[in-house]
C-alpha cells in the first residue's frame, strides 16, 4: 500500500469516531470505540509498518530540535506518514479521554464540543481548553 493510500485510510478512519464523540457521546457504539481503542490501535499498526518500512530510523535525531527537523526534511514518505498517524492516534485517544472524563465529572457535553474540535485539529490546545473547563466546573486539579 502506498503511503498516500495509507494516509487517506488513516485520516478517514478517525473521522467517524470524532463525529460520534461530538454528536452521540453516550451511544453504545461511541462508548465501545472509545473504550476499545480499536481505531488508534489499527493506526498504530500503520505507524509501525511505515516507520520501519523504509529502513532504520535515526533515533538519535529525536534528541534535538535540529535532529527532528533533519529527520522530517530528509525522511521518506513513510517517516512523514508515521509522524502524521502518530498525531491522529494520540489526538483521538486524548479526545476519548476528554469525553469519558467529562461524562464522569458530569460536565455538560455542549461545553466540551469546542475542546474536542481543537483536540481534533490542534491536539494539545483542545486538551488545555478541556482542562480549563474541567478546573472551573469541578474546582479540582486532580482526578
Summarize the structure.
With 143 residues, the protein is mostly helical. Helices cover 76% and strands 0% of the residues.
How would you describe this protein?
The chain has 143 residues and is an all-alpha fold. It has helices at residues 3-23, 28-36, 38-52, 65-74, 77-104, 113-122, 124-138. Helix 1 packs antiparallel against helix 3.
Task: Fill in the keyword field for this structure.
143 residues
Blueprint of the fold:
Blueprint: H1 3-23, H2 28-36, H3 38-52, H4 65-74, H5 77-104, H6 113-122, H7 124-138
Helix pairs in contact: 1-3, 1-5, 3-5, 5-6, 5-7, 6-7
- Share of helix among residues? over 70%
Q: SSE order in H/E notation? A: HHHHHHH
Query: What's the end-to-end separation, in Å?
Result: 42 Å
Number of helices: 7
Strand content: under 5%
Helix/strand-derived category reads: mainly alpha
Major sheet size, sense and barrel closure: none
The tally of strands reads: 0
Question: Overall mean pLDDT score?
Answer: 92
Which spans of ≥5 residues are poorly predicted at pLDDT below 50?
Answer: none
Rg, Å, rounded: 17 Å
| Broad shape | globular
